[in-house]
Amino acid sequence: MLWLLLLFFTFFLFSLFFSSFFVLFCFFMCISFLIYCCSSDCFCLNFYFPFHDLQLF
Questions:
Q1: Long-range contacts, stretch 17-21, CB < 8 angstroms, 24+ apart
Q2: In tens digits, what is the pLDDT along the chain, a chain of 57 residues?
Q3: Which top-rank group of organisms is this from (predicted)?
């Protein structure tokens, strides 16, 4: 009974670790994609920011 609980606990920890790793990976991918779009004249900037040509910054 105890080893079953331990197995479940380790499985839970591994799943938690991999899910957090996956979320962090997606977050960093989104950040790098946004940085890439900001550095080049990307389509997503013209789509999400239609006033990008005003050069507010």
A1: none
A2: 788 888 888 988 888 888 888 888 888 887 887 777 666 555 555 555 555 555 544
A3: Eukaryota
